[in-house]
Amino acid sequence: MEWLHTQWAARPWWMNLMFAFCAYMAVVYVPWDLFVKPAAADEEVWFGFRFHGMAAKIAAIPHWAIYAAGALGFYRMASWMHPWAAVYLAQVTIAFVVFPWLYGPGGSGSLIASVVSGVVWGGLTWLVWRSAPLFVDHVPEAQDG
Fold first, then answer.
1. What backbone torsions phi and psi does residue 38 show, to the nearest 5 degrees?
2. Considering the chain, what is the average pLDDT of its residues?
3. Shortest CA distance to 100 belongs to which of 121, 84, 127, 86?
4. Is residue 106 pLDDT above 50, yes or no?
């Protein structure tokens, strides 16, 4: 339990959530998506554009690499995470703003979804961008005694 407490204390709460999300996606979801989910049912989204079938399977490979790198980078608080985590989140922000316009119901529902998504994901992108001093290449360890 001390290891978990040390890990939790090593970064802001929102970054812990990003660390956990990246680890889950790299270890559980993307491998299931790639190796278990049928290609006919597969979808991936990049920059708001949806890919289906084998194109989605191929597009999942860089997602897997990004989530694995994100999990490792957040765990180690690696200096190379800045600016790359923010760049990837900027892509996610764009995707969440564009997607409702391309695939949503249209009208004011798409506008609201785009604005809310842009604010939420843009805010997270800004937080990561401003967190450069936290990425100092260390693995949090439990204190002795």
1. -65, 145
2. 91
3. 121
4. yes
8 Å CB contact between 95 and 77: no
CA trace torsion 35, 36, 42, 48 (10° rounding): -60
Position 9 pLDDT exceeds 90 = no
Cα distances (angstroms) measured from residue 121 to each of 56, 83, 86, 91: 23, 16, 10, 10
Exposure on the CB side of residue 4, measured as CA atoms within 13 A: 2
- Note the Cα 77 to chain centre separation in Å: 15
pLDDT value of residue 70: 97
Residue appearing with tokens 């979808």? 43
Model pLDDT for residues 55-73, shown as the tens digit of each residue: 999 999 999 999 999 999 9
User: Is residue 106 situated within a structural domain?
Assistant: yes
**Number of domains, the chain:** 1
Q: Which domain holds residue 91?
A: 2-134
* Residue that the structure tokens 């802001």 belong to: 12
Residue 49 inside a domain? The answer is: yes
